[in-house]
Amino acid sequence: MDKDKSYSPEEIISMMKAQFGNAVKAYWFYDADLCPCCQSRPIGEKAFDNKKSLSINAFMYRERGAMIAYLLCGQCAEEIIAQSPKEPTSKHKTIEENLVSAYLKYLNSLT
Question: Whole-model pTM?
Answer without folding.
Answer: 0.81
